[in-house]
Amino acid sequence: MISLEKKKILVTGGGGFLGSFVVKKLIERGVPRANISIPNFGEYDLRKLEDCKKVVGNSEIVIHLAANTGGAGYHEGRPGELFYDNITMNVFMMEAVRGTAVEKYVSIGSATVYPESAPVPYKEDYLWTGYPQKLNAPYSFAKLMQLVQGQAYRTQYGLNAIHLMLVNMYGPGDKFDLLNGYVIPALIRKIDKAKGNKGDFIDVWGTGKATREFLYVEDAAEGIVLATEKYDKPDPVNIGSGMEISIKDLVELICRLMEFKGRIRWDSSRPDGQLRRALDISRAKSEFGFEAITSLEEGLGETIRWWREEGYKEYKEN
Fold it and tell me: From edge to edge, which strands make up the β-sheet containing 36-37?
């Protein structure tokens, strides 16, 4: 187990949605804020090796959260950009730590890497049994190569690299973009907009039949920090909530929590994406004691409250 209190820790993406919660968890563990480095992406471009070397500096722990990602519409329109940006950031960040004082490197992957044909819930052993869902494949392979690189660098260079694969996250501070955001924040904003305009319906992509697993962002951050402290093996680890829900049931739940009584109009011309996506989370529990503690309804309530009190200020209607 690594004691983090006196370590110099680099958190790429530390100013973002997930990163802000990871930084909060580190500070709660006793890490001085002065020991946590968060790169300014106006100053550094992590798609350049020389910039990655600069941000690594004298860090002892690297938690690499920075990524280019978004909701289904974002992935549909930017497959080349998502592949290039993510694979270059990931390759160069890990290369930048080689031969430095970095004691541990934590890379973050995605549940989208699992083959579309794999049995649900996904176990880590299913990773290489087929091809991911095509919509997300460019992003998914860019993320998965972190696992390959980390295992290779562990073997040749002795780098203690670990790889965590997360399901869809949500919570306060998420991206509430109607076109490019993830399903939960986009739905919250869409319903809020309909209520404000006294609308009697909302339009939702797909048929509602697809299922997903959602993880509250604070639980995700706790899982990442626990793994940073306690996990040192080359095998990848799923981080999730263990709760699977259909998009139809999710939409109805958010409507109920937001007291929206209008119609839900399903746009079946738009893709459902992968029909099921949920993780087997037993390895995280057995290896470093992680279990999500926030129920979906509780987490949605907190997210809706944050949007109403703070989040809407960041967005302007077109």
Answer: 36-37, 9-12, 61-64, 104-110, 161-166, 237-239
Burial of residue 309 (number of CB atoms within 10 Å: 0-12, 13-18, 19+): exposed
CATH of the domain at 79: 3.40.50.720
pLDDT > 70? residue 317: no
Q: Residue 128 falls within a domain, yes or no?
A: yes
Cα dihedral value 131, 137, 142, 143, nearest 10? -80
Decide if 107 is inside a domain.
Answer: yes
Within-domain flag for 100: yes
Q: Phi and psi (nearest 5°) for 206?
A: 85, -160
pLDDT at 297 > cutoff 50: yes
Structure tokens at 115: 């083959």
Q: Check whether 278 has a pLDDT greater than 70.
A: yes
Q: What is the DSSP letter of 160?
A: -
Question: Which amino acids are annotated catalytic?
Answer: 139
**266, two tokens:** 């399903």
How many domains are there within the chain?
1
Entry pTM: 0.94
Most distant CA atoms of the chain, gap in Å? 62
Query: What's the helix, strand, coil split of the chain in %, to 5?
Result: 45, 15, 40
Q: What is the pLDDT of residue 318?
A: 45
* 3-state SS, residue 157: helix
Q: How close are the terminal C-alpha atoms of the chain, in Å?
A: 50
CA dist 198 and 122 (Å) reads: 42
Domain that holds residue 34: 9-171+213-243+276-293
pLDDT at 255 over 60: yes
CB 292 within 8 A of CB 242: yes
